Amino acid sequence: AQSVTQLGSHVSVSEGALVLLRCNYSSSVPPYLFWYVQYPNQGLQLLLKYTSAATLVKGINGFEAEFKKSETSFHLTKPSAHMSDAAEYFCAVGTGANSKLTFGKGITLSVRP
Amino acid sequence: NAGVTQTPKFRVLKTGQSMTLLCAQDMNHEYMYWYRQDPGMGLRLIHYSVGEGTTAKGEVPDGYNVSRLKKQNFLLGLESAAPSQTSVYFCASSWGAGVSDTQYFGPGTRLTVL
Fold first, then answer.
1. In tens digits, what is the pLDDT along chain A, a chain of 113 residues?
2. B residues 41-100 closer than 8 Å to A (CB)
């Protein structure tokens, strides 16, 4: 079985501050890991994904995430938050070629001026 | 190229009524999915399809039926709506069978069942 844990439901940062959104996964086999972003009243959009290549994955809008097997983590970071980053962020895990994605509960990012 | 579109965007039903949500994609994707999104629960897979004419159950299939008569369309039906089905419904599609394939999402349908 696979699962994803996103602790907390809301993170607030100041504009220009570091963004860190945590994701821990549980999987008995090597996972595929994803971060999706959902802007208000829109569908989900892929930010980045890890598919067993480089452990540091760069995505769109300056976001990146690092796969750490020893910590079973895939935390999302951005060095400097922008007001436009305010959204809900979902981590997801899949295992095996034909498995389906399991999504975390999501975390809302607010950016203060 | 419209991507993934969903119809309708909003709907209010009374308990016991039926309705069909339509998902259409113009990317020639084989795989299509229906999810529901509830506060604090993330997205949960309802049903999915691996190609025209096929459907399969996901994590929370009870109370829903689906059909994939054409490759580009994936319909989600509620035969007798219940308040527990109040949710935001998202359709998604992907090119291949691999879990690493990116899923592309529609804008969602907000359904309220009174």
1. 788 999 888 999 999 999 999 999 998 788 889 999 999 888 899 999 998 778 999 999 999 999 999 999 999 999 999 999 999 999 999 876 566 888 999 999 999 99
2. 41-45, 48, 58, 90, 92, 97-100
- Write phi, then psi, for B28 (nearest 5 degrees): 60, 30
Alpha-carbon distance of B106 to B109, in angstroms, equals: 9
Please check whether residue B22 is in contact with residue B75, taking contact to mean a CB–CB distance below 8 angstroms.
yes
Calculate the alpha carbon distances from A68 to A2, A72, A77, A89, B20 in Å: 16, 6, 14, 19, 43
A23: closest CA among A12, A34, A32?
A34
**Integer Cα distance of B69 and B71 in angstroms:** 7
